[in-house]
Amino acid sequence: MKKSLFIFCFLFAFALSSKAQDNVSLPAQYQKMMEKILGNIPKVATSKANSLLDFAKSMIGVPYRYASSNPSRGFDCSGFVSYVFGNFGFKVPRSSPEFAATGVPVKLSEAKVGDVLIFTGTSHKSKRIGHVGIIYSIDNEGNIKFIHSTSGKANGVTITDFDNYYKGRFIKAVSIM
Fold it and tell me: What's the whole-number mean pLDDT along residues 115-123?
């Protein structure tokens, strides 16, 4: 992987310097090599997202517990998300509202598995951030399921459809990975 990354960086720098100097593109053999390397990058990202989600899924059924990020006691929503990402070396906030300023904002239509969804709280009167979850799956029709810790019916870590109820509370999506 390190060798591929080095080759990619070299070829990328070569391409930039060549184009900047005289609008010459990469020779065909290097262009094919660069395309092959670039083609493998999403597989690496998908692998990390899958590992993260497998870990998150292992906590389904852990009960909801306000202000907790401890799997032996339970999780609130942001405690769950921060615990999951923290186990993979990502530094993320501990409270839901802070997620709005974390990561890279992405359009919902461009969100990927492993991205974080940010919602309002349950009060219909307030538009303040109050809930977060991690995109668990996106099917071919664009239907999203997300994993989160909820104080609702499931009362703990569960996988939920991004249905009209959550669409009405949706604020934004961010990419952490």
Answer: 96
Q: Distances from the Cα of 50 to the Cαs of 1, 27, 43, 53, 151, in angstroms?
A: 19, 36, 10, 5, 25
Judged by DSSP in three states, 25 sits in coil
Q: How many CA atoms lie within 13 A of 5 on its CB side?
A: 4
What span, in angstroms and rounded, lies between the C-alpha atoms of 109 and 6? 32
Look at the domain 59-175 and name its fold: endopeptidase fold (from Nostoc punctiforme) (3.90.1720)
**Which residues are CB-contacts of 26 (< 8 A; sequence separation ≥ 6)?**
11, 14, 15, 18, 34
* Catalytic annotation, residues: 77, 131, 148
- The first and second tokens of residue 165, run together, are 């109820």
**Where is 176: in which H helix or E strand?**
none
**Structural tokens at position 133:** 């979850």
The residue with greater pLDDT, 35 or 97, is 97
DSSP letter, residue 103: S
